[in-house]
Amino acid sequence: MKWFSLWLPLVSQLVVRSCCWHGWPLVAMRRRRDSSQPPRSPRRMSWPPVGYGVVVVWTIAHRGGNQPPPRQRNVRSLAATLLIGALAVVVLGMVGLALAGRRPQADPVDLSFPLGSGTYLVVNGGSQALINAHLGTLEGERFAPYRGQSYGVDLVRINRVGLRVSGLLPADPAAYFIYGDPVLAPCRGRVVLAEDGAADMPPPQADRAHMAGNHVILECGSVWIVLGHLQRGSVAVQVGHITELGHVIGLAGNSGNSGEPHLHVHAQRPGSTTAPLSGEPVPIRLGGRYPVRNDRFRANREGS
User: Fold this and answer.
1) 193 - beta bridge partners?
2) pTM exceeding the 0.85 threshold for the entire prediction
3) Model confidence pLDDT, tens digit, residues 248-279
4) What is the CA radius of gyration of the chain?
């Protein structure tokens, strides 16, 4: 069973990482470890380990070389079959959750797409924690001040081959394609809050003292629309002003609790003066679509 003791730890790590990298188990672990800190910036789940684990197990089960005795071959075949079956259950379970996450948990608010020209990728979005890290703030007293972001959406701009940055995780925010893109008002509304002055952080550092970073809150009907992590010095609206649909309110940046430049947008019921992001979360549709992780939006409009 030398081969089994050699490969099983690797396969086990792949399965554990695939299951817990970005779902309720990891969220729960974070809560237990440090209940005094605000939530970290959303992280994306890595899918490749699942497929890689299946390939490894299949290779083990069909490797050539000297043939062991029949009884030993049967044991190996049974072990490999059980591992493949376990991986299949995990993969199917995650696929089921991901598909369920394409249905909003409540009636969404319709908004225009908040960015100008380009192709944008949803890196957090949907109604399951597996595909939307913001849902980790939906429950628990610790997250009450940020509960409004629970159905939030994170967007990055990508190029023709699907890359979102020049280079390998550079520390310069300007290397990320979305950095500096105009952020457009997704609805006509009154400016409730406009904060500027927070520094754009070098990735992957995050400013957890200013969770939303530079951000604007618009009151559109009965909901507040929050657009966060804007570039320092770019906020172009003032509290009390009426902002028209498509008006440029700032530039995409990397301020606040953000691991890399992106635009965060969410809808919520009005929050309090001391905790403006604490309102009841509301799902959103962008350009008539419910945004889910890995969805792409192609925008082609200029701001006013």
Assistant:
1) 217
2) no
3) 999 999 999 999 999 999 999 999 999 999 99
4) 22
Could you write out the DSSP letters of every residue in 167-205? SSS-S-GGGBTTTTPEEE-SS-EEEEEEE--PPBPPTT-
Q: In this predicted model, what pLDDT tens digit does every residue of 276-302 receive, in sequence order?
A: 999 999 999 999 999 999 999 999 877
CA distance 292 to 132: 8
Describe the crossing of helices 2-20 and 24-33 by its angle, rounded to 10 degrees: 80
Residue spans per domain, the chain: 2-100, 109-299
**Could you give the dihedral angle defined by the CA atoms of residues 167, 210, 46 and 280, in that order, rounded to the nearest 10 degrees?**
-140
E strand intervals along the chain: 109-111, 118-124, 153-158, 182-184, 189-195, 214-220, 223-230, 242-243, 248-251, 263-268, 281-282, 284-286, 296-299
| Measured distance CA(15)–CA(31) in Å, rounded | 22
At the fourth CATH level, which superfamily is domain 109-299? Glucose Permease (Domain IIA) (2.70.70.10)
